[in-house]
Write a structure and sequence with these properties.
The chain has 11 helices and 28 strands. It is mostly beta strands. The chain has a single domain, classed as 6 Propeller (Neuraminidase). The longest helix has 10 residues. The chain is globular and about 60 Å long. The protein binds MU-OXO-diiron (FEO) and calcium ion (3 copies).
């Protein structure tokens, strides 16, 4: 750890930053959390005498116009009164010419899946073509062998591995507005499947490095495919960003003997998906550098189905959740990036060059060069707010030197997690999505949960991670100095601390804006709509028992970032996660992803009867045609 950095000035900056004072003064989290009084450590252990008696501070948000809905344990997708929801597309629906219709036998070959919508819909973005037509670019994060194959994964052939690889990646397809919603066009010239075998290129500071070369690619720049595409981002220049998350689950080093890098990134001696059994590039003994070619953010031009996806190594290699892009007032492009693992870090990238709204071609390379930073949150004793700073991940600075194992910038990017540790970044409670408020530029990040907090070395309780054995999660927000998203300092607080006020009276009851009518656990998906409503999607425990009693199935909530009020908007079917969110340009449709219905508990969503459950994108509209959420 770098001593100079530890001694850096941690005093609050920019006292005249009135916007931020205002959001802090909303005091949402603080009120309940301060009930225990006391010092930092005492605070986290103290009882909360008011418990659920503290209702949401303001229940009269002018931003939220819909009626809250109760929790649900039903096998359906529920939206508020006056809204309707219907499926747009489900796993296995054909999107390329010649692809067959979905067949739930599990017997369709790899070739069929390669022309169909991939499995387990996740992050997605809309790219308008006109008022009534648009492209959807959608991540297909992973697949469930119990549903994908008739043999449920017990007898994996070479074609089965190819089929699983084809169920992953990204699906791009055209959608068209109709009299009663939107439908997808199976024969559009824009439609495209990107899979674990699509040709793509590594670009940026790590491209061509020795650590990216393999037996099939002596250049270290040509890589096949993307997988475990979790969440997403979109750029102001019209490209789609897909983020590679748990890539480790596809690689194995049979016999063991992992080095420290493989260990830090979680690559074991066997693998969940078993691709290495028939595809040697996933066997680390045979291709030691192949894992280094995954864990990146990939930039895709959705308008050109022949374009080569570009892996942007300047954004670092870790288990990427999403990529929240904003343009700072000075024109530099800023991308906020979470690394979803217990005790990992939160990052931001600042482009070297400036965004130029009138030069699309130049913007296309803005993610090629820039500087990556990891965050450090300074805790203020006895409070759940404080200051923070961005620690530069550049070779030769902040201890990123050969003595600490880094020989060049490529290695800093490839082993970004290890670099973040060297510079002293804060370990977080699993940073999932980041979202930037469209007007105030305040940044929000879901910290989904962390059972290791307070138990594992290096994961102390405190700051933005205030609870040991955190099963509920929280959302941290910060405002950069002077409202400049390219600044090096920020102030933070907790927007909401999830909890269960019907079960707990202490800090596990949650913050003051949580009550028995809006409680949830494990916030994950996060995004703002055009008017500044904050949409929260959960990927949590759905047992509806014990700590999670009364929470029901996974859900979507909408928050007013000014008042702190949070209202439940949607509930998903059995054993699903709700993830992926995008809005039509006219604000009158929201697309919501239903991932892995029936993952652990039987579901027949969306077709009902005895049908196989299928991951599905839902189209949600108001019956009166009004603005969603208003
Ligand atoms: Fe793919 Fe962290 O969720
Ligand atoms: Ca997620
Ligand atoms: Ca999650
Ligand atoms: Ca998921």
């Amino acid at each position: 750890m770098n001593k100079d950095l530890l001694q850096a000035d941690t005093a609050p900056r920019n006292e005249q930053d009135s916007d931020f004072s205002k959001i802090i003064d909303a005091g949402i989290s603080r009120r309940r959390f301060m009930q225990g009084g006391a010092t930092a450590m005492g605070l986290f252990l103290a009882a909360n005498p008011l418990g659920k008696a503290i209702a949401a501070t303001h229940a009269d948000s002018k931003l939220l116009g819909f009626s809250k809905i109760p929790t649900s344990t039903a096998d359906t997708f529920v939206v508020p009164e006056g809204y309707s929801a219907k499926p747009l597309i489900s796993w296995g629906d054909p999107i390329l010419q010649g692809a067959p219709a979905f067949d739930e036998s599990g017997m369709q070959p790899a070739l069929a899946q390669a022309g169909q919508f991939g499995d387990n819909t996740d992050g997605m973005s809309i790219f308008p073509l006109s008022d009534d037509r648009a492209l959807l670019a959608v991540n297909n994060e992973y697949t469930n062998y119990k549903l994908l194959f008739k043999h449920q994964g017990k007898a994996l052939s070479h074609d089965d591995v190819k089929k699983a690889q084809a169920a992953h990646g990204v699906s791009i397809f055209e959608i068209k507005r109709t009299a009663d919603g939107w439908e997808y066009l199976a024969d559009s010239k824009y439609n495209r499947r990107i899979t674990a075998n699509t040709e793509m290129r590594l670009t940026g500071p790590a491209a061509g490095d020795e650590l990216l070369k393999t037996s099939a690619d002596s250049s270290g720049t040509n890589v096949l495919g993307t997988f475990n595409n979790c969440a997403n981002g979109e750029t102001p220049w019209g490209t789609y960003l897909t983020c590679e998350e748990n890539f480790n689950g596809y690689f194995a080093k049979p016999g063991g003997g992992q080095d420290k890098h493989l260990k830090r990134y979680g690559i074991g001696d066997d693998s969940k998906y078993q691709w290495y059994t028939s595809d040697t590039r996933f066997d680390v003994n045979q291709e030691p550098n192949e894992p280094n070619r995954f864990g990146w953010v990939v930039e895709i031009d959705p308008m050109d189905p022949t374009s080569t996806p570009l892996k942007r190594t300047a954004l670092g290699r870790f288990k990427h959740e999403n990529a929240a892009v904003t343009v700072a007032d000075n024109g530099h492009v800023v991308v906020y990036l979470g690394d979803d693992e217990r005790g990992e870090h939160l990052y931001k990238f600042i482009s070297k060059h400036k965004y130029n709204p009138s030069d699309k071609a130049a913007n296309r390379n803005l993610l090629e060069e820039g500087t990556l930073y990891a965050s450090r949150f300074n805790a203020v004793a006895g409070d759940v707010r404080g200051t923070g700073e961005w620690l530069e991940l550049t070779f030769g600075k902040n201890g990123l030197t050969p003595e600490n194992g880094f020989n060049n910038q490529a290695e800093v990017m490839i082993f970004a997690r290890e670099a973040a540790t060297v510079v002293g970044a804060t370990t977080m409670d699993r940073p999932e999505w980041v979202a930037v408020h469209p007007k105030t530029k305040t940044v929000f990040c879901t910290l989904t949960n962390n059972k290791h907090r307070g138990k594992k070395a290096g994961q102390p309780v405190g700051g933005p991670n205030p609870r040991a054995e955190n099963h509920y999660g929280q959302i941290v927000r910060w405002k950069e100095a002077n409202g400049d998203n390219s600044a090096m300092h920020f102030k933070w607080d907790l927007f909401v601390v999830a909890g269960n006020p019907t079960v707990h009276k202490d800090f596990y009851a949650g913050s003051a804006n949580i009550n028995d009518e809006n409680m949830f656990n494990s916030p994950d998906g996060l995004g703002f709509d055009h008017d500044g409503r904050l949409w929260i999607m959960t990927d949590g425990a759905y047992s509806n028992k014990g700590d999670f009693a009364g929470m029901g199935n996974n859900q979507v909530l909408v928050a007013d970032p000014d008042t702190g009020e949070i209202r439940r908007f949607a509930t998903g079917p059995i054993s699903c996660e709700l993830t992926g969110l995008t809005f039509s340009a006219d604000k009158r449709t929201v697309f919501i992803g239903v991932q892995h219905p029936g993952e652990k508990v039987e579901s027949h969503f969306p077709a009902g009867g005895n049908s196989k459950p299928r991951s599905t994108i839902m189209v949600v509209q108001r019956n009166d045609g009004g603005v969603i959420g208003a």
